[in-house]
Amino acid sequence: MLRTAVLVSGGGTNLQAILDAKAAGRIPDAEIALVIASNPGAYALERAKQAGVPGVVVQKAKGEAIEAYGERLLAVLRENRIGLCVLAGFLTILPENVIRAYDHRILNIHPSLIPSFCGKGFYGLKVHEAALSYGVKVTGATVHFVNEIPDGGEIIAQKAVYIRPDDTPETLQRRVMEEAEWVLLPAAVEDVAKEIRNSEFGMRNLEL
Ligand code: GRF
């Protein structure tokens, strides 16, 4: 199994969807080996504890250089022999040294159909507010690889969600999570883990 870390900042419902899928046998190719939180208050840490997954906090210190923070993050990933990272509501921008070291090994979930309503400043409720104020009738979620462009990496999977006339940003956020994010992310983790394990790219080039 590919040792996988889930990076979180908040409530961790996407982490929960991954943990539930794992428990149900739907992610045979990945081991959820570590949860990394960007802050000690993240409820996701409690979810990790309940599931018996080790949790650590790696917080960017005020004034710390982004590359130095990246080195600390990389040290934790390497110490834990992590081969795949999943950003599940992780709000800290990943430094380039981490993105380079884990090329095509970092997934992110974004709550819209990329390239709509994505990129800098589009996070949380803002994404759904923007979709409603534009007036689109379909939105959804996207899982993509992470590169140096915010929400700009190669798309792995997308799922559409229809907007209802009476939707508010809150009701839409909830439905996009239930109908798209919680389905899409665990399935993408399995697909990517399987592909990495079956490819030459495999475990070797990370010295795992
Ligand atoms: C989700 O909407 C996800 O798409 C976005 O951040 C939110 C995280 O929610 N990137 P949770 O912490 O998984 O509940």
Short description:
The protein has helices spanning 13-23, 44-50, 66-79, 96-101, 125-134, 169-198; strands spanning 2-8, 30-37, 55-57, 84-87, 106-110, 138-145, 155-162. With 208 residues, the chain is of the alpha/beta class. Strands 3-2-1-4-5-6-7 form a seven-stranded mixed sheet, covered by helices on one side.
Give me some keywords for this one.
alpha/beta, 208 residues, 6 helices, 38% helix, binds 5-O-phosphono-beta-D-ribofuranosylamine, 21% strand, seven-stranded mixed β-sheet, Rossmann fold
Mean of residue pLDDT values: 95
Multimerization state: single chain
The number of distinct helices, counting runs of at least 4 residues, comes to: 6
The proportion of residues in beta strands is: 15-25%
**How many discrete domains?**
1
Number of strands: 7
Order of helices and strands: EHEHEHEHEHEEH
Distinct ligands: 5-O-phosphono-beta-D-ribofuranosylamine
CATH architecture label name: 3-Layer(aba) Sandwich
What separation lies between the terminal Cα atoms? 12 Å
Largest sheet, in brief, is: 7 strands, mixed
Helix content: 25-40%
Write down the CATH class: Alpha Beta
CATH topology: Rossmann fold
- Class from helix and strand fractions: alpha/beta
